[in-house]
Amino acid sequence: MNLFRLALPAIATATLASATLANPNKTAEAFFEQAGATASEIALRDARAQWIFNTHITYDTQQLVIETGRERSLIFLELARQANELLAQDGLSNVNRRNLNRVRQGVNLPAPASEAATAELVEIGAHLKNLYSTGKYCPEEGNCLSLRDMELTLSTSRDASEQAELWEGWRTIAPPMRAPFSRQVELSNQGARDLGFADMGDYWRSRYDMSGDEFSASMERYWDEAKPLYESLQCHVQAKLTEFYGADVMPGNGMIPAHLTGNMWAQAWSGIENVVMGSNAKAPYNLTQILEDKEMDEIAMVEMAEMFFVSLGLDPLPDTFWARSQFTKPRDREVVCHASAWDVDSQDDLRIKMCIQRTEDEVKVIHHELGHNYYQRAYKSQNYFHQGSANPGFHEALGDVIALSVNGNYLHQIGLLDAAPKADPETEIAGLMKLALDKVAFLPFALVMDKWRWQVFAGEVGPEDYNAAWWKLREQYQGVTPPVARDESNFDPGAKYHIPGNVSYTRYFLAHLLQFQLHERMCELAGHKGPLHRCTIYNSKEAGAALNELMVAGASQPWQDTLEAFSGERDVNPSAMLNYFAPLQTWLDEQNKNRQCGW
Ligand code: X8Z
Ligand code: ZN
User: Fold this and answer.
1) What are the phi and psi torsion angles at 313 (to 5°)?
2) To the nearest whole number, what is the mean pLDDT of the chain?
3) DSSP annotation of 175
4) Is 331 known as a binding-site position?
5) Where are the domains of the chain?
6) What does the angle CA 63 – CA 66 – CA 67 come to, to the nearest 5 degrees?
7) Which pLDDT band holds residue 423 (cuts at 50, 70, 90)?
8) At residue 282, does pLDDT exceed 90?
């Protein structure tokens, strides 16, 4: 296929020839508008095929998604190349420069300039996603466990050998990903270099309205600020696990064995809340139990989340959302269960795709996904290349902010709790601990996910060291260690969705800090007085209006401007999270005072 026979903006070819003659700003504006129209057309066709593949994985749906994916890639890549050429002109305004950069950075996986390379890259992407999503652990023939089954067991099991078996079992799906993954790295690195970036890591890091290097430095700064809280938490959890499991199971070097955290990836630890709190366990409520007692099904859980957004003054979701979403795991076919939110036509065709389970965790995930949907709908009038969150972290933070308001006071207000939780210190510490086990424990995990990929993309870690480099980072940043020896016959990064799914992960790191900042501001707007963990913005039209304004702006201006309009700040500020957990930090210091912390 000849690239220029594709439905590319007519302007592009003509423009490039005459770019030096024309006014560069006028050319850039016309190109940006045309590029947006071209992109949304192919994005719609690709999204339809993607939806079908994601909700029904077969050989045929995979072929269909490869076809539309290839077409999409070729078009997006061509637009990116043209934007790159236009960027070489002198006299561009900052706005036009930024807009052209959005197009240049708009390819998910840039391929080198050949149809064969593009096809290969798209095929690898679909293949990896298939391997992950249909992967199972079969302890014996005819008895296979899905990830979902294993996650559920892991969150409640306290039997170290069962936990280790599931932990190791799930990772048997990953070794076949190693070779295609390494080829994906090779191809996309070349594609990123062709567009003027150092490598794929640089390509990802350049999406934050600053240079890739400046962004790396910001990440280090954020982490340095949050680290002391994580270290206190890690120390306490390590000590409690040692009390519970004893020296036979614990390594005795200050590290936490990954299989004992109640989570398949040791990324969020609230599953082991009881072990961690021991005799101090005074959880203010148990939402999983409430869902069961009130017989709330999956749809009722989604309706509950929608109701929160509506209480802020936002519109209800369209009927098509309810008709087209996948809420529960189909019994008769393979699907991608990892939760996601879609806007198929970049307008009103909003959907979520989940395999909802009736648990408190899933209530949080539903709010998270609806956050994506509400954001998507708010910025739908923007140019396609401005349809996105202020920076990728904002998209991931939006629904989580709402979920921070799903607390005891809120559950009482909507009638799911008979009384608001008592404000006694023990109950409060238990509540803060539970949240910290998810939000604070998550930070170094998120950091490792992309630090590892940045090293791989930069060629500092080659395929022969993938697993060793992964565990080196996990141990260094998280103080988490594998339950059994690992070597290069394993490919443990592949057992986490976002690696085969090729989703950058710094977005979640940022989101975990940002959500406390946004929560703080919205609580102020809602007129809340007192500790932030007791604040719910439920029903606050003031908070809702501010949130809406932030969402409507999409990615149309530097994220620092959008944040400033919202809260007056121009940077991600970890101190919001630290303030929120300040009482817990004090409590942890007391608990840890005679302990040897660190690893
Ligand atoms: O992948 C997700 C969402 C979809 S964007 C369910 N999250 C990360 C994960 O599961 O690893 C949300 C928190 C982190
Ligand atoms: Zn998300």
Assistant:
1) 100, 5
2) 95
3) G
4) no
5) 1-107
6) 90
7) confident
8) no
- Taking residue 8's Cβ as centre, other Cβ atoms within 10 Å add up to 18
d(CA 84, CA 317): 38
Tokens 């003054």, located at residue: 313
Q: Give the span between the Cα atoms of 27 and 12, in whole angstroms.
A: 9
- Spatial contact of 253 and 598, defined as CB atoms under 8 Å apart: no
Quote the pLDDT of residue 12: 52
Tell me what the mean pLDDT of segment 431-456 comes to. 98
183 has binding-site annotation? no
Percent of the chain with pLDDT over 70: 96
Tell me which ligand sits closest to the C-alpha of residue 498: 1
**Residue 370 reports pLDDT greater than 50:** yes
Query: What is the tens place of the pLDDT at every residue in 25-63?
Result: 999 999 999 999 999 999 999 999 999 999 999 999 999
- Distance from C-alpha of 259 to C-alpha of 165, rounded to nearest angstrom: 9
Residue 480 near residue 167, CB atoms below 8 Å: no
Distance CA 175, CA 445 (A): 21
- What contacts 577, CB < 8 A, 6 or more positions away? 226, 229, 439, 440, 512, 513, 516
Tens digit of pLDDT for each residue in 375-409?
Answer: 999 999 999 999 999 999 999 999 999 999 999 99
Say how far apart CA 78 and CA 74 lie, in whole Å.
6
Dihedral over alpha carbons 278, 284, 287, 288 (to 10 degrees): 20
Assess contact for 479 and 234: CB atoms under 8 A: yes
Retrieve residue 57's tokens: 């994985």
Give the end-to-end CA distance of the chain in Å, rounded to a whole number.
56
Rounded Cα gap, residues 100 and 195, in angstroms: 12
Per-residue three-class SS string for 29-49: HHHHHHHHHHHHHHHHHHHHH
Residue closest by Cα to atom 3 of ligand 1? 339
Is the full-model pTM beyond 0.90?
A: yes
Single-letter amino acid code for the residue at 397: A
Interval between CA 396 and ligand 2 midpoint (Å): 5
Tokens of 342: 């879609």
pLDDT confidence tier of residue 5, bands split at 50, 70 and 90: very low
* Residue 127 is labelled as binding a ligand: no
- Written as one string, the DSSP assignment of 337-379 is -S-EEEETTSSS-EEEE----SSHHHHHHHHHHHHHHHHHHHT
Ligand nearest to the CA of 398: 2
Q: Which residues have CB under 6 Å of ligand 1?
A: 339-340, 365, 368, 508
Q: Distance, CA 336 to ligand 1 centroid (Å)?
A: 13
- Please give the positions annotated as active site: 369, 498
List CB contacts of 304: < 8 A, sequence separation 6 or more. Answer: 296, 363, 414
Q: Which CA distances in Å does 135 have to 176, 232, 327, 508?
A: 11, 36, 21, 24
